[in-house]
Amino acid sequence: MSREVSVGEVASLLRDRGPALVLTGAGLSTESGIPDYRGPDGQRRVTPMSHQEFCATSAARQRYWARSFIGWQRFSVAEPNAGHRAVAELQRVGAIGTVITQNVDGLHQDAGTRDVIELHGSLADVECLTCGERTDRDLVQAFMDDANPGFASLALGLVGDGSRVSSQIRPDGDIVLADDAVQTFVPPRCLVCGDDTLKPDVVFFGGSVPKPRVEQCFALTEAAPVLVVLGSSLKVMSGYRFVRRAAAHGIPVVVVTLGPTRGDAETTHRIDAPLGVTLTALARELAARLG
Ligand SMILES: [Zn+2]
Question: Which residues are found with C-beta within 5 Å of the ion, ligand 1?
Answer without folding.
Answer: 128, 130-131, 133, 190, 192-193
